[in-house]
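#struct-pred
JK: can someone run the complex with iron/sulfur cluster? inputs below
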Amino acid sequence: MRGTEQLDVLLNDDTLGADHRRIAQKVAENQRIEFDEGVFLFEHGSLSYVGVLANYIREKKNGDNTYFNRNFHIEPTNLCVYDCKFCSYSRLIKQRGDADAWAFSMDEMLDIVWKYDEQPVTEVHIVGGVLPQYDLPFYLELFQKIKKHRPELHIKALTPVEYQYIFKKAKVSYEEGMKMIKEAGVDSLPGGGAEIFHPEIREQIAADKCNAEQWLRLHEIWHELGMRSNATMLYGHIEQFHHRVDHLERLRELQDKTGGFQTFIPLKFRNQDNQMSHVPESTTVEDLRNYAISRIYLDNFDHIKTYWPMIGRTTAQLALAFGVDDLDGTIDDTTKIYSMAGSEEQHPALTTQQLVDMIRRVGRRPIERDTLYNVLQDFTDVEFEEDKAYRGYIELPVVQN
Ligand code: V47
Ligand code: SF4
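RT: done, structure tokens with the ligand placed:
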């Protein structure tokens, strides 16, 4: 059944409560929901109810298109001057000599890029810990060298967490710094470092790094330069529902102003080996509700992404029925952030065929995109040789919606 039919069924249900009906009507009439209605959805929206609304919006905005890209990551270091309580990946500078600590030189990072020379990747995602030796001149040189070597490779690099630190150290304003990184070759900013904006929570989990105002201001300046970026929210730990809605509200406000965000990526808190390991992880139902309510609330975002290395490929497939239209990319086992935090994906890597297959099996259209959502190839009718190596899910017949 299509999203419009599902919504009709919902609106014709006599048992639907008045508040649920009002919100469903708003969605049907393309109206924005308010803060209190967002909290209401988190408190009283069943999975099936928010799922119908989110799927309707997803299909209205993107049809069955489900985007992915071919990408790899560079994580320059896991040493970090900060000490976020949820982070399983970072090691303090004093742990520099530990076996599981690394800090790549410029040449080692460039070697990673060269390794992909013959491969059809379109994006490099660069993010890691914050270390004094990786200062503004270092990163400018890195970006310039990557661009010079492979100009068409999209550089999606660093978050306000790094930029706030390196601009301050270099004594340049945010405006000057952002212009410098643009000129050096950065094409877009990833969405990391946002965590939970509300100070009641941010001060408990990420007290010492950039605050909400700095995160939002740096993205705003970047957008004012005509550039695009992503946004995330780290959810499912000690925050309450109104903190999540506050987070979504701040993003929606900035998006109204600049229109520069491309996609929103909810990041599920994973609790292995960090200072918040006593906090239980959210359930799959809660993860799906969170995707759906994000889709409903962020009416001015074109895309909602599920990041499969963090949530696992099965839940990522499910999310495609709850407002999500993007799966991120092939990754090629180049990120450790989530494997170190306990994700089921210990060596995240998918071939193009595997991504396409995951999307087809839930009845959607696999579309390869570049980072800016230009369509590179529609894989709906592309046939592959059977990939015998891939057994990541239970074999099901391809679903026709
Ligand atoms: O900012 C760290 C998160 C983020 C944990 O823009 C954790 O396309 C859960 O932002 N449990 C970095 N989350 C990753 C990121 C990202 C990933 C994929 C795509 C894009 C994009 C951005 O990872 C950090 C933090 O919020 N994180 N530790 C953890 N234990
Ligand atoms: Fe450092 Fe980022 Fe980990 Fe925080 S989340 S400790 S800033 S690597």
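RT: quick notes.
Residues 80, 82-84, 87, 89-90, 129-130, 161, 209 surround iron/sulfur cluster (ligand 2) (CB under 6 Å).
Confidence is low (pLDDT under 50) at residues 387-394.
JK: thanks, will look after standup
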